Amino acid sequence: MATNAQISDAPATRAGAESPTGLIERMAREGRAAQRVLATMPDETKAQALRLAAGRLRADAEIVLAANALDVAAGEKAGLSGAMLDRLRLDEARLSAIADAVEQVASLPDPVGQVIDRSTPSNGLELSRVRVPIGLIGIIYESRPNVTADAAALCVRAGNAAILRGGSEAVNSNRAIHAALAAGLEEGGVPRQTVQLVPTQDRAAVGAMLAAAGLIDMIVPRGGKSLVARVQADARVPVLAHLDGIVHIFAHHAADPAKAAAVVLNAKMRRTGICGAMETLLIDATYPDPHGLVTPLLDVGCEVRGDRRAQAIDPRILPASAEDWDTEYLDAILSVAVVDGLDAALEHVELHSSGHTDAILTEDAQVAARFLSEVDSAIVMHNASTQFADGGEFGLGAEIGIATGRLHARGPVALEGLTTYKWLARGTGQTRA
Fold first, then answer.
1. How far is CA 384 from each of CA 19, 168, 283, rounded to the nearest angstrom?
2. Which residues lie closer than 8 Å to 27 by C-beta, 6 or more apart?
3. Taking CA 302 as the corner, what is the angle to CA 252 and CA 221, rounded to the nearest 5 degrees?
4. C-alpha closest to that of 320 among 303, 340, 339, 305
5. pTM listed for this prediction
6. Tens digit of pLDDT for each residue in 361-385?
7. Which numeric CATH code is attached to 247-393?
8. Are 127 and 137 in contact (CB under 8 A)?
9. What tens digit of pLDDT does each residue of 160-180 get?
10. In the chain, where are the structural domains located?
């Protein structure tokens, strides 16, 4: 069994003789070759390999947690925020949940080969659209070591190979998790190069991934605004982007106060560092109990910044700046605005939402229906915490990210979002006039 030192040091030594461009080109060619093998594997073979990978992750828990402790200690020394440390930190329960997610992905139906639709036009051709893997996917991510496992499991289940490039904050954790997964997958017959972890933190390797058109088929960035912006600006490869999670909840005057208070507190404070955490609370000017929404947040240590009317709710509320309405805090900080009804709430969301997740709290079915219809975000919710904005909670097993664009895939991207399709045309000798 590898020691933590071996996990940390061996990959960097291997990468030392190659330039970042040469490294990525080699990894991409190896990954594409492995993907061609994976694409021919039966459904149950892929599923069993993932179950073995989850088992190896459980068996290597001590190694993974020791590696993670190194990352957390380094993060604390570097002054990472509490929210960033929370994203980074693993314990036995979290690691068990990561392994559970891999097993859940293994239990999902294989999307590859699914027939999307069939038709027979007047020319007599029998046409069908069939799901196929995308190919080789590059995932560039920060801080969260669970992405290593989620991305690997989803890519393999959907017949794709993956090149993973994690952030320096989680370098030891990522290497330990990848080593366990790769060993389990290989035991199950999946080529080891199907899921590769970039063995260097040199940022030039990211640039090489973004420039690898023709070798890498799609890039998925998971991280902060600066990472996503760089990927979108520099990529010569198609990008499936996850932008900021500037998440709103609108407390309508017809909301149930007890229900609303519980949802608001959970949406902000359950985990402040995830993309589904509420960042802006909109309170209807005629809402019956604004104190019941804001005071519990303040009492548990959340910093609240508000507009003039919101500040009147509690003297502890600080003045909000114009920038607050467009900020993803990922911390125990919340902006609050008092708005004049549904139309004003919709206008605020239209101006400031990042298109990730927005929610309404109301017992008025017509108002809820209008909000759900008119808010153009990837996820729109009614009477539920935005912390549910997660592929696992949506029954997808895991997610590779939440896409906020409008093309290919939207919302939690899981197995279906990691496939494309091809047309099959079956004829009987037809020729075209």
1. 49, 35, 16
2. 163, 193, 196, 198
3. 85
4. 305
5. 0.80
6. 999 999 999 999 999 999 999 999 9
7. 3.40.309.10
8. no
9. 999 999 999 999 999 999 999
10. 4-241+407-424, 247-393
